[in-house]
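User: Study the shape:
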Amino acid sequence: MSYVTGSEPEDHRADLDWLYRQDKPASGYAGGAPQTLLLPPPTTPASRPATRSPMIIMIVLLLCLTAGAVGGMVLLLQPQSRTAGPDSREPSAAKASDASQVGRAGPVTPTHVKVGCQAPHATDGAGRPVSYVPEQLIDGKLNTAWRCNGNGIGQVVAFTLPTGTSIAEVGLVNGYAKVDPASGARRYGEYRRITQVTWTFANGMSFQQSLTDGVKTLQKLSIPAQAGDTVTLTINASTQPGSTSRGRDAVLISEVSFRQP
């Protein structure tokens, strides 16, 4: 029997004999020399990992779930904002609107005004002449007005609009909103105030508008968009004059407005 010589001390060799064994020749292989095979030393069983307490595992899981829930709530509560950059595919307001309406929405100024009644010129508190021509209905000034003597019921004001206009809002100041620059007199309450009118469009559609007495600014009425180049305003009702002074029995409109969709 042959042994592999190790480096251990002589007196320990017998204790290590179990590490070696001699291979016998395979069957039918004559004269084979004995083969020595070095077997690996037995391994020490790995130590078992310490078993974690179920209570600790449960606490860790609860902490993870709580952290996830809090993070989700923070994301939900944060305001969402999107900024359209130069390469954004989101259309701008101008691109999203109909091409026929781009740049056309807003106020519309009539090209002509025609009336069947007009009061003669008068003078203000300083003796300066005051006119009541119909063009003052659309001059953008509240201290000018068109005037018709009497209650004005049945009087018609006709407006010519630019070609291709579509109107979605009308409005008017239903009295004389002027404050006399010389005397400081407020003219609105001295004359009649219009309380109802009818707007009629070129397509035959009509809309009544009721007006509030005492409102010295534009009173507006939104309507479905109406196409056409003419609109008429008919006075249906007015109040009594607020003053018994001579010349106060008249209806006045300080301003009229039209807006496209």
Observations:
- The first helix runs from residue 54 to 77.
